[in-house]
Amino acid sequence: MPEPDIAIPSRAPADVSADDTILPFEVAALDLRGRVVRLGPAVDSILTDHDYPEPVAKLLGEAIVLGIMLGSSLKFEGRFILQTQTDGPVRMLVVDFMTPGKVRACARFDKKVVADAIAAGKTSAGALLGRGHLAMTIDQGSDMSRYQGLVALEGGTLEDAAHEYFLRSEQIPTRVRLAVAEEFRGGDGSARRHWRAGGMLLQFVPRAPERARVPDLHPGDAPEGIALPAMPEDDAWVEGRSLIATVEDVELIDPEVSAERLLYRLFHERGVRVFDTAPVRAQCSCSRENVEAMLRRFSQDDRDHMVENGVIAVTCEFCNGSYVFHPADVANGEADSP
């Protein structure tokens, strides 16, 4: 006998926006699944603690959203590390997402070149990143091998790089939207800026294997003029990627538009199912004990070269936390308490 249909409860979308959350969803009628990320205090604390120039902060904010969207798909305890290395003014972005929901991030950039770019109005993501690569690393711990995927950055955006990665590495039709902006709030007689960020990831994952086929990648060495075979896109994916293309940046970050309300706007005709949200918080993994252990792994000669004004000072690039040690303490004894 066929199994009875299981009724899925329905309700109106929530009107209240929940910041620092990951909301998984699916549109079963179109074989779509995805996640919506909404960040408020978490991204604000990371970006304001470093006081990055605005274009650098926006770029790092996008990387944070992307890292959380991809890292939150891990089904095990571990880390997802997103890192760019390029020849542009922003040489490096690093996002370290630790399951189930801790994130830290930082950027390295040339202050003078970034200032010149701002003065010249050349602050697009492509102009700041330049050319290089985006690496995505999955770390399951010291007893397991790391997995790393690489995709070229060629003057485009992080969205472009994500699309290229899924096309070449996962071969899953995917679209990503990222948005970062500052919100100005009044209070105590003055306005304060707060960073907000948001994003949406949408993937086409059909149950039927024949619908999951994607066109072959360009071989790169086909003779000029040779027409490569074309494969029509599935109508469900055409509809899905067309709908996510209509999402505006403000909808991804507007505190007055909840993630559920946004999904309802997009997919109410087809029906959209949401799952439990997962919280995200900004938290660095550095500690005095970890830094001490790291220093002890250096040779005595290396530690001698680290000494300035009689002490060894270490500053965490992620959280700006500072740790000061006496040379003798990290060599042979317990480190002094802060």
Describe what you observe in this structure:
With 338 residues, this protein is α+β, with helices and mostly antiparallel strands. The chain has two domains: 21-210 and 234-282, Hsp33 domain (3-Layer(bab) Sandwich); 288-332, CBS domain Like. The protein has eleven helices and 14 strands. The protein has helices at residues 41-50, 54-71, 111-120, 125-129, 158-170, 235-244, 249-253, 259-267, 288-296, 300-306, 327-332, and strands at residues 21-27, 32-39, 79-86, 90-98, 102-109, 131-139, 147-154, 174-187, 190-204, 273-274, 278-279, 281-282, 312-315, 322-325. The strands form three sheets. Strands 1, 2, 8, 9, 10 and 11 form a six-stranded antiparallel β-sheet that branches. The N and C termini lie far apart (69 Å).
Which oligomeric form is depicted?
A: single chain
CATH architecture of the largest domain: 3-Layer(bab) Sandwich
Level-1 CATH class name of the largest domain: Alpha Beta
SS field, number of helical segments: 11
| Unreliably modeled segments | 333-338
* Approximate strand percentage: 25-35%
Distance between the termini: 69 Å
Task: Tell me about the largest β-sheet.
Answer: 6 strands, antiparallel
